[in-house]
Amino acid sequence: MRTARFRRTRRAGALTLVSALTLTALAACGTSSSGDGSGGSKGGGGSSDPTAPLDPKAKVTLTIDCMPPAAKAAELKEWKEDVAEFNKTYPNVTIKGRSTAGQCLEPPRFTAMLKAKSQPDVFYTYFTDLPQVLDNDGAADVTAYVNDRSVPLLKDIDPDVLGSLKRDGKLYGLPTSNYTMGLLINRKLFEDAGLDPDAPPRTWDEVRAAAKKIAGLGKGIAGFGEYSAGNTGGWHFTAQMYSVGGEVVDASGTKAAFNNELGEQVAENLHAMRWQDDSMGRTQLLKWGDLQKQIATDKLGMFLAAPDDIAYMVQQLGAKYENFGMGPMPGEKNTLAGGNSYMIKKGIPGDRIKAAVAWLNFKNLTVAKGQFDWARTKADGLPVGIPQPNFWLNESKAEDDAARVEHATMPVANFKSFMDNPVAGKAEPPKAQEVYKVLDNVMSGILTNKDADIDKLLATAESQVNQVLAGQ
């Protein structure tokens, strides 16, 4: 779904459809003139060879999605600093940022933007957006533009992350962050229940036992929480299927694959926790944001999440970093993986594509620069130490990991179980949001109806998902 604060794998797809794109174009943050405002190259010129990096003499104006809004003062400060630093190398590139007051990528607005061909030159996407973008002929093939000259650390980027942005061997974007899901815990409640917060549950049986102990504290505290609305229930059902070695869609991408013993196992375990153990709380039909509020106020012991949920809870809900920890995805067969990326609008001139790649390389793909300048992040009062983005390999990973620890603003030891026990990530299914919407019905049925017919819920959902997949 998204990265927790506004992840790109979408957490909430059932939003009210808007009819027009309402992104507000803000003033340029760059230091150079905008030329004729067309965004094309002028003066200086550049090489017509797509494999050659941008010529610093090329004059380009570039529009870019998701500049931080004024309300995010520290993030906006860093954006402006990065533009100024970028312009030291490319003085003739003008960056024009676009921002929104709320979530940058809202699915209905994103769809409207693609259909209207109104996306900026560099536009923000979730990994799962690639099919929709290509169906709308929206992204440039940047395969030739991305190489070890334009992106020097390309060899150190996880190939599975890059693979999320490829189709038929062609590359259509560059990552900005990625995540894998694990078990987020409230350390205080674990201690209160006599559990070891440094050793979170590793199996679903252990989750169930721990949830009962935490719920036994009373005072309206739930041991384990789950979503069941706004597409987030289906998203988490998928995560749980992956955790026990199952699939939601078969390898062909054309048929549902959850109406089986593993699907029944997931459903029956949740039903037992909700109704036999009474360890999941009585308030259900929850969506993204609800569980975060519960765990941040010591009313929930644990739920499945990505690491950056913790930053959201501290920055937006007033929680404290030391109150949280993470373990790997229970079951540990696989975990759901996702992330965010930027794509480049199809049809723009070659020098603008090169400028976009140069900017994305500086801002998002260089250790100790841009988003990975952890010393600056700490100085600006922003969180450091969360184990994502986590797409580096080799020496880049060692360098970045060490810098995160050095400048950490939170107890990184609380993530040790999560980091020391990595679980293989699996991508979201095709037609993810439509599939999740159907699977919401399974989750809501399980969690709101003590007499739920699990076989019927799974069979009905299987039929509906098959119809969704047949419409690809």
Could you characterize what this model shows?
- With 472 residues, this protein is α+β, with helices and mostly antiparallel strands.
- It is built from 16 helices and twelve strands.
- It has helices spanning 73-89, 107-116, 130-135, 159-163, 187-192, 204-215, 232-243, 261-276, 290-296, 309-317, 350-364, 374-379, 394-406, 416-420, 432-448, 454-470, and strands at residues 24-25, 60-64, 93-99, 122-126, 166-167, 170-171, 174-180, 182-186, 302-305, 324-327, 335-344, 425-426.
- The strands form four sheets. Strands 4, 7, 11 and 12 form a four-stranded mixed β-sheet that branches. It has a three-stranded mixed β-sheet with strand order 1-3-2.
- Strand 2, helix 1 and strand 3 (93-99) form a beta-alpha-beta unit.
- The protein is globular and about 70 Å long.
Protein traits:
three-stranded mixed β-sheet, 12% strand, disordered N terminus
Helix % is 25-40%
By DSSP (H or I, 4+ residues per run), the number of helices equals 16
Oligomer classification: single chain
Low-confidence stretches: 1-44
Q: How would you characterize the largest beta sheet?
A: 4 strands, mixed
Question: How many beta strands in the DSSP annotation?
Answer: 12
Order of helices and strands: EEHEHEHHEEEEHHHHHEHEEHHHHEHH
Percent strand? 5-15%
Radius of gyration: 23 Å
Rounded average pLDDT: 90
Global structural class? alpha+beta
Distance between the termini: 20 Å
